[in-house]
Structures
1.
Amino acid sequence: MARIVAGLGLPHSPGYPALVAREGPTSETAQLYQEVARRLDAARPDLMVVFDSDHLNTFSLNPLPTLCIGVTNQTAGPNDGTPGVPQYIVPVAEEAATDLLRFGLQAGFDFATTYEFTLDHSIMVPLHFVRPQMDIPIVPIFINGIVPPIPLAQRCHALGQIVRQAVETLPGDLSVAILASGDFSNDVGGMLAPLDEYSGSPDVAWAQHVVDLMRAGTVNQLVRAATTPRMARAGNVAGELLNWIAMLGAIGDQRPEFLEPQADEGHAYGFWYLDGGRHR
Amino acid sequence: MSTYAVHKVCWLVHHDPEFRERMRQDPATAIADFRLTDEEQTALLAGDVGSLALMGAHGYLLGFLQRYRLLGLDRDRYLEHMRPAKLRARSE
């Protein structure tokens, strides 16, 4: 029986790869990604389910899936010219993706499916930092956390729970990690960005509250707090929190082994080990 | 719900080089066949991204207009146009 051994959450700011290339491996951002990378390495997953919000580079606006699973054997990215990120080939766990799709539909999650797709910075930046070897096949699950109307936190949490059940039906003795990508408070090009900035975190207090609830392992409280209007006040891409909520649904009410915010940036770096997974 | 049409214009600017070039050469003709409201059309041609944001357009998508320096926008002009919307959002 397959089992979930770890959860991780990361930001995907498209400027980070070039920033880290400039500032080197001792920079704060490089160190934070490295904290998660070495734990992921120790967890030795065989595959990784990735909850992500495409930034309209994998999909167009028509149709725009609310929930979508990518089913293929390999993909590539970044498809949006992220500075400092080379072109990678990313293996996809095609059979597991198909199983998750079928399990989800049977459980009432009406996924859209994409069989041909590439990945943008929102998946490639995290992978570039924590797994540049690109040797862990992924199952990408896209949640529209960006273009309103976005789905409910409750629904994304339940999605994560279904993914956990689905993983536990996968054949073989697979160890599975769950990756969430995104920010808790960030506004890009919109009217909630700082007055003289193109982008930035308009609601540092909300991001800190999210981190506090995650640190306490009180996922249900987080789900209740993350109403659609509350997330909207935290910026026009703050719905990326839904990816973290789905990840937390998959791993359950656990305290993180590592969780470090970059408070001013409105996001955090986190890692959760699960029972049955390898502990430090 | 014509926010979709504004979003479509912005998305095409980023993903369709031929459309981007038409937006550069003759924006009024390039957007003529989109299902934009009169207000959206006027604001778009004026590069008034602040009004478009207040009408519901997403900043991430509007941002492509300044990235490709269309409709008289660059990063500074974009921020100038967005400023009234930012002030209004803060007063609410």
2.
Amino acid sequence: MRTRFQQQMEELREKLLRMGGLAELAVDRACQAYTERDLTRCQLVLENESHINAAEREIDELAFDILATQQPAAVDLRFILAVTKINADLERVGDQAVNIAERVMDMIELPAVELPVDIARLATAASAMVRRALESFVEGKAELAQAVLEMDHVVDRMRDEAFIMLVRKMNEEPQVTQQALDALLVARNLERVADHATNISEDVIFWVLGADVRHHAQAASAAPRPERREQI
Amino acid sequence: MPDTNSNSAAVLVQPIDVPPISLRRRVVDHAMTAIAVLTVALVLLPLFAIFAYLVYKGIGSINLAFLTQTPKPVGEPGGGMANAIVGSMVILGIASLLGVPLGIGAGIFLSEYGRNRYGDIVRFVSDVLNGVPSIVIGIVAYGLVVMRQKHFSALAGGVALAIMMIPTIARTTEQMLLLVPQAIREAAYGLGVSRWRTTLSITLRTATSGVITGVMLAFARVAGETAPLLFTAFGNQFWNWKSDQPTAALSLQIFTYAISPFDEWHKQAWAGALVLIVLIVGAVAAVRIAVRRGTLAGA
Amino acid sequence: MGVGITVEHLNAFYGKTQALFDVNITVLANHATALIGPSGCGKSTFIRCLNRMHETIPEARVEGSVRIGDLSVYNGTSATQLRRRVGMVFQKANPFPTMSIYDNVAAGLKLNGFRNRKKLDEVVHKSLHSSALWDEVKDHLHKKSGASLSGGQQQRLCIARALAVQPEVLLMDEPCSALDPISTGKIEELIFQLKEQYTIVIVTHNMQQAARVAEFTGFFLLGKMIEFDKTEKIFTNPSDKRTEDYVTGRFG
């Protein structure tokens, strides 16, 4: 029954997955650009940003259409609300990738220095979180989403450590301040990506279980930071 | 074919050529209408013919004397049927008083409480009663009333006619009540109205106009009956206001005069027949008008 | 002013066919409760068991207990007594066609012996106001028959008629299914206001209607009550898969 409705829902799902793929790719590219100091990759990230923005618009339009014409209820309604939120988070992930790429472009102009932080590891973690969050959406499994929520603490700690190490480095060797700052900012961008992945997971849990876990997660986390980060 | 090349929204579809209705179909259509009209005319013709003939034969003898005087003895001219007119009204009144409540009551039973085997039995009996010859009913009334009372009376005549009215009234009342939608009864039950109250105040009230039609049908039928009155009211040449004496009735009087060998009486018989018909039509029309006046706008 | 309804182990039969299986519900006073479910699921049968209208069908019978306020519906109250405390509005508006608008509204009182003209006037006035029909008919109270109104007005007339006997509970069996959206809207608005004084149980085919007017919703399927909960829960995250399938349009 409701063939057209089912088709529209399927279309919405596919569009979101495609956008997720684009966002994931952007983050991976930006991270590789950082580790390999590769200008081409940076430019690719910047070029593909427009695709992500276009996808965001399409998805919002379709979700709006379905809400207006099909009066979805229960799980279908939760799905659409979740999709619109995940949509916004994925677009921000894209933005973060762009930020990283721009930072890398700056960084490349400066001489390379040895920094006591493993940005690559942070990048891998953040990227994995995005991928797992999207997997949990594909599979519709709350457990996978829950796992992502738990990884967020790890990433937060990694970022905090990076900050401490980089600040110390800047104090000790002021001549590498610029590079250190760039690294610091990239670390912050990556931590933001991880936060968006967390948001996506919370939305998946909302869709699958009908449970709003946003405040539970906050209660569980020791960090006093708000769970949902706004892009500045 | 629709104009697929045009982008204009105004040209949606080209008009389709509908072939004109064939001549054969038109002829058949008109022929059928003509037959229908003819049939109606054939049915109404005897009615008007009778009425016209009655008027023709009877109008000459209707005068004030006819309407106010009792019959004169044989041989004397003049006289009238005043007592018969009044007598008929009295007998019909008694018949209605007895037959209408019983008939409606039976109809209510059949429709509201009789949708089962008991109801079927009652219906069967009613149908049989309907087919009994009127003279037999007269004899029954003779046995029931006249022999008990040891005299003829208007009451006996009324009883006979009532027995004839009941089956018709019962069956039409039942049909009219069945036509009342169940939703109306449910609405009353939903308000906490008891079943008998609902039947009387709601169901019967909704079916009123149909029930009255049934009553008028029965009335018109028995108004002209002669045979049942032969052994019950018996007829009377004089005024009679006592309940223990035979009573005159129009139908009886017409009968007596018609089979007599006197011309004068024949003329009066025609007049009497005319008066009888007019009275019946008048009664039915009066009731119809009264019902319509009492009905609300839109009901 | 409304009362609660408690239904325990209700089973209903039409002759040998069982239409309701062990239904248990508690309806809260002064709330609107909606009953939804596909055709033939028993929701109309259920609501008719609450005011013993089910019995008017030959060979119909009921087992189990229903309490309305302090009254036991099947034990010790006559059906007519009960129905004066529990009003009903039907799917197709059924005003009495031979009665005027005034008489229609007053019918419940008049037919039960109430004759005081002044009091009747008051009650008719109040009931027509409560059902938002007064302004449209105040000039024709005695002249027009109940059947001369439009569909939506007729239904509001039936609501006024039901309210005139001052019941504590109002049962509505798909009251809007024969009406256009504007009339439906007016009646839904009405239900919203009536909740303060009466307990309302409404059977509806229209899920969005249930979602709009009722605080609680019960889902019936094949004579059983599958789920009964707050309306938001039923429509955002029902506990039973069958409820979810129905509510999302997978069947029914």
